[in-house]
Amino acid sequence: MTDRASCLVSKLGHYISLSEDDRQRLSTLEKSERSYGAGTDIYQMDDPCTDLFVVKQGWLFSYNDLPDGSRQIVKLHLPGDIIGFPDVSQKHVTSTLCAAEDVVLCPFPKTALDVILRDSPRLSALILSIALRDQIILLDLLRALGSMTARARISYMLLDLLARLKITNKGMSDVLRLPLNQSQIAAYVGLTNVYVSKTLSRMEKDGDIARTGNTVHLLRPEAMEEATDFRDRYSDMDIGWFPANKV
Amino acid sequence: MTDRASCLVSKLGHYISLSEDDRQRLSTLEKSERSYGAGTDIYQMDDPCTDLFVVKQGWLFSYNDLPDGSRQIVKLHLPGDIIGFPDVSQKHVTSTLCAAEDVVLCPFPKTALDVILRDSPRLSALILSIALRDQIILLDLLRALGSMTARARISYMLLDLLARLKITNKGMSDVLRLPLNQSQIAAYVGLTNVYVSKTLSRMEKDGDIARTGNTVHLLRPEAMEEATDFRDRYSDMDIGWFPANKV
DNA sequence: CGCGTTCGTTAAACTGTGTTAATCCACGTC
DNA sequence: GACGTGGATTAACACAGTTTAACGAACGCG
Predict the structure, then answer these.
(1) Do the first three CATH levels of B7-119 and B150-228 match, i.e. the same topology?
(2) What are phi and psi of B116, to 5 degrees?
(3) Per the record's keyword annotation, is Chaperone included, yes or no (chains A, B) (predicted)?
(4) For a designed S-S bond to B89, which of A133, A199, B54, B125 qualifies (C-beta 3.0 to 4.6 A apart)?
(5) pLDDT tens digit sequence for A67-79
(6) CATH class of A150-228
(7) Averaged pLDDT score across all residues of chain A
(8) For residues A153 and B13, what is the distance between their CA atoms, to the nearest angstrom?
(9) Smallest Cα–Cα separation from B98: which of B161, B44, B49, B157?
């Protein structure tokens, strides 16, 4: 195995051990990687859905513009994430993808799933599991947006991001680089930029967080977890039921 | 084929034509059906996750109690729906399931998925697609809760329910039986029962809806769709890429 | 160096929604 | 027929979060 393994292999290999066959299958699926500058819209809502992307570098987000002119960010994409999964079920993509900073993506065609489903039950189970886990996480976010205060929503967002970064980066401390401006944070948690500023300042004054530049330090993560009833869904996946591949 | 087909067969058969093999496979998975009275909690948050359920009759919802004492309903389950899918990825269920009225469910074990993934790529693709489509719908709901007014949220909910009922009931008119009280509606759309009442009254006065008992009549669905940017995700699934089963 | 741009902060006025609580109605029961 | 119960409605008041606007800091650029 060379070091420059495919994005997909290294992403999925985090969850289960992959057979050599599976590695082969995955790496042939991948097209050559692509870079985009900060702020570019990579695809637009209602474009035909052909490719998926693995994030190799940088943060992105998916958003929608609403009839009243406001914007809702529905998903943040971090390095290692697969982008566009839910849209596979639709003929057209349902949101616009935007690079929050300079990014590198590894695209692979939607039809790749066809091959995987046909040939590898074990990979299929993993992919299904990831899709389902993402759904759980959306449900968590729904709870947050549906009935939590501004402060709790922001806390929730920070805790979630930290948990996600810790998947691939075990020994990580509670410090977080946040390459999003406050308007983007607002669009994600359903507030205004003004109130995000006020809330972050208050959290800082109260000693919940510390800020320097665009990095945030969570000073009492346990207290925040309790206040928001946060659960880490990333570290707790059930992969026991996965089938072995046929011989 | 007898008329009393299994719940699963009739549910999944709505989307694609099933081979005789697939029908066999599905019907053996199913346990005997079970009934529950209105208001019963069928399973509780944090219970171990062993079974999935197909709804044969009646409405249900999944909810969570939040630290501040409020309650958030995260999903409404209508006849034909599969309940508990996202939880398959977790060791424990992430919400409590409650019967909104008298219901009949068809349980089948979580391990059934194992068999399907191993033996039927085509069914696997369908199941994956349904999971992904549900995720899209959650994203839609997220947009609604994140940045829409009370009125738009309720409109959104009504439109969504109508679209879902129309899947299995093609020629349906814009009339809807709503077996939920206003507190439950509130818990779903992130409002209070009082404000739901006020908003529904206002919508009725303005001629958007008409109410008699617990049925709601949507008087200008197109206007409501426009105001909320509603999209029907149910009628627009992409199943073209599904693999055929191996020979 | 001066200029424009973007972003974060702060303040004041405003508003949609929450809170609380009283009233009413429909319905079932003894 | 009296009573209890659950749900819907209404009104008065409180408040979390929005809107608008102004200002300052940091940065890139000609």
Answers:
(1) no
(2) -60, -45
(3) no
(4) A133
(5) 888 999 999 999 9
(6) mainly alpha
(7) 91
(8) 41
(9) B44
Burial label, A102 (beta-carbon count in 10 A; 0-12, 13-18, 19+): middle
Distances (CA, A) of B116 to A124, A142, B86: 11, 30, 17
Nearest CA in chain A to B86: A132
Distance, in Å, from the CA atom of A76 to the CA atom of A102, rounded to the nearest integer, reads 15
A115: number of Cβ within 10 Å = 17
Residue A246, pLDDT > 80, answer no
Interface contacts (A, B; CB < 8 Å)? 188
Nearest Cα to Cα of residue B180 among B152, B205, B211: B211
Which chain A residue has its CA at the smallest distance from B190's CA? A146
**Which of A 29-58 lie inside 8 A of B, CB atoms?**
49
Are A208 and A224 in contact, with CB atoms under 8 Å apart? yes
- Closest nt to residue B70, judged CA to C1': C18
How far: B125 CA to D7 C1' (Å)? Answer: 44
**DSSP state at residue A235:** T
Task: Tell which residue, B179, B129, B162, has the closest CA to residue B228.
Answer: B162
Q: What are phi and psi of A45, to 5 degrees?
A: -45, 135
Rounded average pLDDT over A58-86? 94
- Domain coordinates of chain A in residue numbers? 7-119, 150-228
Residue A37: Cβ within 10 Å count: 10
Percentage above 90 pLDDT, chain B = 67
Give the mean model confidence (pLDDT) for residues B148-167: 95
Flag if A89 and B226 touch (Cβ within 8 Å): no
- Check pLDDT > 60 for residue B1: no
DSSP string over A40-93: -EEE-TTSB--EEEEEEES-EEEEEE-TTS-EEEEEEE-TTPEESTGGGGBSB-
- Domain B7-119 class, CATH top level: mainly beta
In this structure, are residues B214 and B175 in contact, taking their beta carbons and an 8 Å threshold? no
What does the pLDDT read at residue B246? 65
Q: Is the CB atom of residue A129 positioned under 7 angstroms from any atom of strand C?
A: no
Residue B241 contacts A, CB cutoff 8 Å: yes
Give me the pLDDT at residue B3, please.
39
DSSP-assigned letter for residue B48: B
Q: Is a pLDDT exceeding 50 seen at residue A1?
A: no
Rounded to two decimals, the pTM is 0.92
Q: What is the mean pLDDT of residues B21-45?
A: 91
Residue listed under structure tokens 């790529």: B121
B144 or A7, which is more confident: B144
